[in-house]
Amino acid sequence: MDQFRPRPANSTPLTPLTFLDRCATVYGDCPSIIYGHTTYTWKQTRQRCLQLASSISNLGIKKQQVVSVIAPNIPAMYELYFAIPFAGAIINSINTRLDARTVSVILTHSESKLIFIDYQSLPIVLDALSMFSPNTQKPMLVLITDDGCPTTSVGFGTTYESMVEKGDPGFNWIRPESEWDPITLNYTSGTTSSPKGVVHCHRGMFLIAVDSLIEWSVPKQPVYLWTLPMFHANGWSYTWGTAAVGAVNICLRKFDADVIYDSINKHGVTHMCGAPVVLNMLSNTPEVKRLKNPVKIMTAGAPPPAAVLARAESIGFIISHGYGLTETGGLVVTCAWKGEWDRLQGTERARLKARQGVRTVGFMDVDVVDPESGVSVTRDGLSIGEVVLRGGCVMLGYFKDPEGTAKSMRENGWFYTGDVAVMHPDEYIEIKDRSKDVIISGGENLSSVEVESILYTHPAVNEAAVVARADEFWGETPCAFVSLKAGMVGKVTEKEVVEYCRGKLPGYMVPKTVVFKEELPKTSTGKIQKFVLREMAKKMGPLRKSRM
Amino acid sequence: MDQFRPRPANSTPLTPLTFLDRCATVYGDCPSIIYGHTTYTWKQTRQRCLQLASSISNLGIKKQQVVSVIAPNIPAMYELYFAIPFAGAIINSINTRLDARTVSVILTHSESKLIFIDYQSLPIVLDALSMFSPNTQKPMLVLITDDGCPTTSVGFGTTYESMVEKGDPGFNWIRPESEWDPITLNYTSGTTSSPKGVVHCHRGMFLIAVDSLIEWSVPKQPVYLWTLPMFHANGWSYTWGTAAVGAVNICLRKFDADVIYDSINKHGVTHMCGAPVVLNMLSNTPEVKRLKNPVKIMTAGAPPPAAVLARAESIGFIISHGYGLTETGGLVVTCAWKGEWDRLQGTERARLKARQGVRTVGFMDVDVVDPESGVSVTRDGLSIGEVVLRGGCVMLGYFKDPEGTAKSMRENGWFYTGDVAVMHPDEYIEIKDRSKDVIISGGENLSSVEVESILYTHPAVNEAAVVARADEFWGETPCAFVSLKAGMVGKVTEKEVVEYCRGKLPGYMVPKTVVFKEELPKTSTGKIQKFVLREMAKKMGPLRKSRM
Fold first, then answer.
1. How confident is the model at residue A191 (pLDDT cuts 50, 70, 90)?
2. A328-340: average pLDDT
3. Rounded to whole angstroms, how far apart are CA atoms A132 and A137?
4. What distances in angstroms separate CA B389 from CA A203, B418, B419, one per listed residue?
5. Non-local CB neighbours of A548 within 8 Å, separated by 6+ positions
6. Could you tell me which residues come within 8 angstroms of residue A443 by beta carbon, excluding any fewer than 6 positions away?
7. Could you please report the per-residue DSSP string of B158-220?
8. What is the pLDDT of residues B138-163, one digit of tens each?
9. In this structure, are strands A295-299 and A317-325 parallel, antiparallel, or unpaired?
């Protein structure tokens, strides 16, 4: 066979940015974004993104410089996912619920040159900037205003809309030179306290966007409700993916169950994504009626308790469950559903669906291995190991952290996730915990998630999280933090909860401590912040003479 | 921004072969292939492919050697699309309707080491081998037998099934070292008489397979009827694509309208592909009832006449129309449908759908340019230029033909298709002809396809093809070859056909010669062989004193 080499005609860099051009051609007059009383068409969205990209360039932003945005799921946020990389820059979207110190760390570490700020985040950003050391260059600021924006912000220099207006409508967006060029920089937030800068490239984001559409069988022109923050792993790549299929993007500044049900009824929502906390919110609403048309929800981010899955499905949500990390830019493992499972009982079905599943069609490999030896664990649903991944959407690496990059992306060809799982005999994986969330009690490794799933079946429990508490005898024992449903506060005791678990779990897995909280500490994406709870458990000191 | 480089965890070569492993995990007990009384499950299909790959290796086949197959759409053909590349080899599927001389040219040129032969093609292959020069090494032969196979073939050494049986069930299939490694070698057949060896790589076939699923919104577990020969551009990549979604592949040795309608009813077919000749076949069947459930057909390979489209849709087929070449491994331009077009009248809708359309989601670029200057033509639906393409599924090149490769894959980054088209103001392209099919009459470039589309609207016309005939005055004039519908032979005259066209076309486009044929010469994929007709027109000699 001849030695063929890539040529320009077949090696044009893969990038998800081309989706928008095509979408404006095919679905130009169809709605792209609906936000309150504002509606744009795909032609308008493309035009606005080009003009914005031109204005970003005119501010002196160079290729591969970082441009930040801190905003909720508003139209500007969606547009910036195209406009910033259209200008050749790297988009760094920042979680709106971070504190000023963390925002300051991110802006400094990323060397961000420009930041788009939703008016509600302005105080945090100004605080963050005040913490910069005197010699550190500050980013330029652009304010994103809105109908609800107080007039006091009007005096603020450049605004988002003025940049859109002043931009060149004939701007030629800047294509990546290589498909390995960076396109996003996401700081992981939440379950640990030290954020890391995850860098993804154009190729990776093209692949995950395309894969996520196939995996979920997303049809043309779906109605997509933005209940997943775009700043969370770029909305699992649906920021670009919705442009590939000409979707209607329903944007929301903030939401609760009522807002979601209203949107579903008003706009005919067909698809939405969210952490299990969103499912929980939807299924715990009193007086909720069965949906007229089924709505597909993709959930991930934490293993959804079986009881919550079952309740949401009874309302009419069709729930798919998957797994991914900021480092994979979206879901790379999903619980691909088998027709034969439809015949099973509700709880059995929910138990199967609570598993993370198998690699997606476009992803190359997933395994559960002994982290020391790299050997695959036995596929028995019991042997615990670390989830390892490989495929085109695994990140380029951690920004300015070659050591962290090398540690997770090993020479043996695998990305080590730090998540602990089992592989079932049918080759579906089930996450048991983050490595650091595993509780080691009397030499037994026990999964906090399993204990939580039992707590969730208790009729009074709203949310539950289990962490290790030091124990003088056993080393560690499970400590449960629980919030109760409305009206149940004071009506259930610590002892009752422990007894409830005792009937359903082996002795060593039964929580030896139960703490009732009004609300559990969460990240903006609905993940319970176990590191906060772990701190609380630490302050309690070691438990004495707990019984197994 | 740090300089990140690809690492093993994110640069695992893209390949469509991984689809089968995943499919066997998720849809293991579901039917993969149905062929007469034979049914396989996906677990069985994967197992058979691994065993076959092991036997191919055991025959001494090395990485990147060519292994051929000549067979219709039978289960073995489908399996070989995984088994041959599983062994690290390159699959070369050969059109079953070629003559012995061409097969001999292909086997020699490809240096094929092994050929799998459907029993019906055995005489042709033996003939072809007898034409080998004495010093040329012949490939090893393996016979594919079948229920219908005559017992006289039994004496023939190795059979396909014995290779499956003897193979190692634990064989580890050979992953490509690079995603740019070749996976297929397809000789273009048909409209020209000199076949060229188109080489595709793993990356390209992964990308087109994934793109074709999104483009057609293919759901999970469709029922796919194999009316498109797999040897035609690897079944437009659906050979691998059906494994990505766990489809049921309905295989057929041969088919006519009755067989297709029977399969639709018996198996609940949801999807099929085919040249317009298949549509024609389905819509010209007398007494055809409206389909109970709609069946999606993807058609390409030649611009479908508007009248045929309209008829097939009235029966209940949902027709999508696209464009691709063997050199792109599948469809890279499709007539993406706009909801607003549903409101239009039948003929107007058919006129729009007869256009090839816009680039697919996963493809990077398409344009219509002046072939000399490379400048884009005006987007007015009138200015004619050459279709140029770029994207990840454009071939590696032509085998042993660096000159031909360089000529079509130019330094300016485009692949030149040799197809002539216009671009409409809405950016949808419409193919007007192969470059060589354009007729130049009195200095006017005229599209034979446009003349044909008028001929197809004549109630007596079954099929029509127009080529250039030399003309003493005008240089060239259109010459129409026409076959008539059953019962219409002898009932329509050459003069009537000319008059019919005169009412609907400008004078210079009206055929000056009309030849009635019982049947038009076609390739196995239903494309009319214009080069044969051009030869016939040549033999007629130049036309004298034709009137415009």
1. very low
2. 95
3. 8
4. 19, 11, 11
5. A442, A474, A507, A508, A510
6. A475
7. -BHHHHHHHS-TT------SSTTSEEEEEE--SSSSS--EEEEEHHHHHHHHHHHHHHTT--S
8. 999 999 988 767 655 545 678 999 99
9. parallel
In B277-396, where do the E strands start and end? 295-299, 317-325, 330-334, 358-359, 365-369, 385-390
Contact B8 A411 (CB under 8 A): yes
Of B25, B204, B396, nearest to A427 by CB-CB distance is B25
The two structure tokens encoding residue B151:
């017992």
What pLDDT sits at residue B99? Answer: 82
Smallest Cβ distance to A394: which of B10, B336, B392?
B10
Look up the pTM and report it: 0.86
**ipTM for the complex shown:** 0.86
**What is the Cα Rg of chain B in Å?**
24
- Contact of B238 with chain A, judged by CB distance below 8 Å, is answered with no
Handedness of CA A153, A158, A159, A160 (dihedral sign): negative
Most A CBs within 10 Å: which of B2, B7, B10, B237, as the mutation test of the A interface?
B10
The C-alpha atoms of residue A543 and residue B296 are separated, in whole angstroms, by: 66
The residue type found at B39 is: T
Closest residue to B409, CB basis, from A7, A213, A359: A7
Distance of CA A357 to the CA centre of its chain: 18
Q: What Rg, from alpha-carbon coordinates, does chain A have?
A: 24
User: Cα(A6)–Cα(B378) distance, rounded to whole angstroms?
Assistant: 31
Q: Chain B within 8 Å of A204 (Cβ-Cβ)?
A: yes
State the pLDDT at residue B139: 96
Print burial letters for A453-479: b (CB count within 10 Å at least 16), e (below 16): bbbbbbeebbbbbbbbbebeebebbbb
Q: Say yes or no: B135 contacts chain A, CB-CB below 8 A.
A: no
Quick: pLDDT tens for B171-207. Answer: 999 999 999 999 999 998 544 446 789 999 999 999 9
Q: Decide if B245 contacts B212 (C-beta within 8 A).
A: no
Strands (E), A13-113: 31-35, 38-41, 66-70, 90-94
3-state secondary structure of A418: strand
Query: Residue type for B364, please?
Result: M
Q: How far apart are CA B404 and CA B397, in angstroms?
A: 8
What domains, with CATH codes, occur in chain B?
34-201 (3.40.50.12780), 275-435 (3.40.50.12780), 438-540 (3.30.300.30)
Summarised one tens digit per residue, pLDDT across range A99-124 is 888 899 999 999 999 999 999 999 99
Rounded distance between C-alpha atoms, residue A380 and residue B370, angstroms: 63
Chain A: nearest CA to B497, how far in angstroms? 38
pLDDT band, very low/low/confident/very high, at B514 (cuts 50, 70, 90): very high
Average pLDDT, chain A: 91
**Of the listed ranges A72-86, A339-353, A390-404, B16-30, the one predicted with least confidence:** A339-353
Q: Are A479 and A515 in contact (CB under 8 A)?
A: yes
Cα angle, residue A15 at apex, residues A13 and A20 outer, rounded to 5°: 135
Confidence band of A42 (pLDDT split at 50, 70, 90): very high
Closest by alpha carbon to A475, among A502, A447, A443, A505? Answer: A443
Which residues on chain A are in Cβ contact (under 8 Å) with B9? Answer: 389-390, 394, 409-410, 413-415
Q: What single DSSP character describes residue B85?
A: H
* Sign of the CA dihedral running A316, A318, A322, A328: negative
Provide, as residue numbers in chain B, all residues whose Cβ is less than 8 Å from the Cβ of A14: 207, 364, 392
Nearest to B258 by CA among B287, B235, B222: B287
Cβ–Cβ contact B400 with A under 8 A: yes
Minimal C-alpha gap between B353 and chain A (Å): 13
